[in-house]
Amino acid sequence: MLDKKNILIGVTGGIAAYKVVEVASRLKKSGANVRVMMTLAATEFISPRTFEEITGNAAFVEMFGDAAHFHVAHVALADFADMILIAPATANFLAKAAHGIADDLLTTTILASDKPLLIAPSMNTKMFLNPATQENLKILKSRGVKVLEPASGELACGTVGKGRLPEPAEICAAVEKFFAAGNLSGKKILVTAGGTVEAIDPVRYIGNRSSGRMGYEIAKAAANAGAEVILISGKSELEPPNDLKIFVKVESALEMRAAVLKEFDSVDAVIMSAAVADYRVKNPAAQKIKKSSDTLTLELVKNPDILKELGGLKKNQVLVGFAAETQNVLDYASKKLVEKNLDFIVANDVTAAGAGFGTSTNIASIIRRGGQVENFPKMSKTELAEKIVERVAKLLDADKKFSPANVNQ
Ligand code: CTP
């Protein structure tokens, strides 16, 4: 499973650093290409040379020292990695990573990376349970960083409690799971995001409150899982994520429909998170409308329902919709699931605190065909995006196993 995967291990200064030698060794034996970077404090516990022997690659410590043959070492290391594992992760590292402090090679590399990050904290129980550390972990998790919970047991400082680095086998299993979960390599995923804009005249438009954040996070999560991602975006102020195959910016629902239909035949899944306007102005004015009368009536006509159309055209594609509701959430969402022929729908009450437009968090439920409901607690849109992408990957994988072409394999 780890064949030719590029894994960058960051070792920070904890007593458990010695255990990471075995982690590096196991990952290498599983076929991964392993590189190690260490903080200066980590070298007090274990020598870089040990990691060099185990991995067959130079281990990096200094920002401007031994890494000189790499062109801009932190960028080169960040680019090399398919994923970064930090083990052991000290409380000090968690604090720096949570707040974007980059004062050595390891923390600078983390900041220069947009690759998946798996962190295995290890420290004294009181340090781990300290609200500062817990708060830092919360920040990191909300950004999509995966955290391997420390084990409980006897600690190096002589106390007993939570804070032990999990055993090497367990850390390696988490790394493998990381690559297995939502593995979308070779898959093409189309994501829509943002709100459409319907012109009234050359100056004004009818829009909605969508920020595009949910869809952009989904595009990012799908790209991180190895998919070729096409992001078709309506209005959004956000920067498109890196690693997209195609990024298309559209304005109106009609433009979004055309862009989506152009790609639909070639994709494995569509996640339609865009807030598409249901109506457009029948005859947008060619010139700016002057305020000559006391009232103004705009005639609106219905826009095509893009997702419903895809539901009709669907062959093997996995189709995912969103239902932004203000009442009877599960009822309305279940109806849309059936009407639009979806595999699942992500439903949320956009009026709930911590959910909906413009927030960084969401409170959602996933409803599947057959009616099974998964209710998620409030979580960051990054985390929710990963959950959605994982479920799409599972459906695509199930498709593959059961497709007639694979019966004799
Ligand atoms: N959708 C679409 N085309 C439209 C309207 C919606 O593709 N013209 C998609 C959205 O991207 C979303 C799903 O359909 O994935 C549900 O959108 P929503 O606005 O919640 O529901 P509507 O079908 O528009 O129904 P209503 O506005 O009556 O609640």
Main CATH class of the largest domain: Alpha Beta
Percent in helix: 25-40%
Catalogue the unreliable spans. 401-409
Q: Ends: how far apart?
A: 19 Å
How large is the share of residues in beta strands?
Answer: 15-25%
User: What is the CATH-assigned architecture of the largest domain?
Assistant: 3-Layer(aba) Sandwich
Do you know the CATH topology of the largest domain? Rossmann fold
Shape: elongated
Count of β-strands: 22
Largest sheet: 8 strands, mixed
- Distinct bound molecules: cytidine-5'-triphosphate
Number of helices: 13
* Structure classification: alpha/beta
Radius of gyration: 24 Å
Strand adjacency order, main sheet: 13-12-9-14-17-18-20-21
Number of domains: 2
Query: So, the CATH homologous superfamily of the largest domain?
Result: CoaB-like
What average pLDDT do the residues reach?
Answer: 91
